[in-house]
Design a protein that fits this description.
two-stranded antiparallel ribbon, about 0% strand, globular
Amino acid sequence: MSTEKSPKVFGFLPNDTPPIGAMLSLGFQQVLTMFPATVLVAILTKFDVGVTLLASGLGTIIALLVAKRKIPMYYGSSFSYIAVVQTAMTLYAKDCFTDPTTFYCPDGVRIVQVGIIGTAVLEILIGLLIMRVGKAKLDRVLPPIVTGSMAMVIGIALSGAALNMAGANWTVALITLFATVLFSVYLRGRGLLGMLPILFGALVGYLASAVFGVLDTSMIASAEWFRVPAITFPAFNDPHAWELVVSISLIAIATVPESTAHLYQMSLYIDELATQLKREPFNIKELIGLNLVADGADDIVVGFLGGAAGTNYGENNSLMAITRNYSIPVLMTAGVIAILAGFIGKLAAIVNSIPVAVTGGLAIYLFGVIGMQGAALIQSEKVDLFSPKNLAVGATILVCGIGGNLGLPNGLFPFVIPVVFPAGIPAIVFAAIAGILMNLVFVIFKTDD
């Protein structure tokens, strides 16, 4: 008879409140996870980094409250908006990208803010519609083969960015990656320690960076203790801003399936943990409409303050799946820390001093987990992958999304739509459109399987 003991189940469900020490460390880990990508989007789109951090934290808190503290999501800057925002600023605020020394372009930000608010309104309307007609109707338009495949695209399509960051110093990146993986595997089930693999991995990478001479801490010494973020207000009186409502709002074609996929993934992992802890399942996958309303609430905050357009973060969802921590109070704490990071220059500088290679090592793991969670969603929903229609929809989404993002110039399909997509359609958006339309064909014209 075996006397081997099964590992103790440890984790926090959405309504759990950890001890203060755990809450602070877990909250900081959430901020650490969202920080590099959120700041990178702000830099690429010429938004103020401090405002983006402030909006990320405040938007997360507001979204959690709007979702009635039922849906554990953290909100950061979305990569989906980069191409259309850069195009809009180039068209209507020409000085934004002509001078390489320009790191913040308030005129362009004000115009784009109107479009971000337009996205928020669209997300809220879609959410309210779903709350009225029910989840089953949405499942016909966005079945698991679409949402799961989109999650895979979103994770794997970002692999190029992860590898580019890791390429800053492969030795440091691989040390970070393997340390993080080892921590996540061998510390699992060991209480709080098992919930901090990303933080520990980042610390190992930070130390490795110092050893290999790629760590620069000068920014910490020169940073101010207190700085006021450069908040701007939307340029509602600019006629060009209203043109952008259409083009920027259409990015919701990518973010709505993305958000839905995130919700399905989170529901799967939360209910599995609840079962292991012998507690009632939460079934947050039934709250799709409320989740989209919460997404819109975040974008309203972002749009009015002048932060980069947001989304609930797959990286943070991956972190929660890895650490088995889904506590809403922890996410609230992370929101407060992000707000402080927007005002406290030293705090932002410490996190910002993390070398790119360390971020790349973490990103390889986190982006990969996003993709694997998409596969887990398809598996858990028992999607028939012998069905020709499911194979067609999934294959089209994967190739257009991943292949388009990595293989096409600037990740754009060469289909120009004036005003809306004047430079071409972003691969992730094109993949979502193609997958949704193809699935609708099968919904309208019934098949035998």
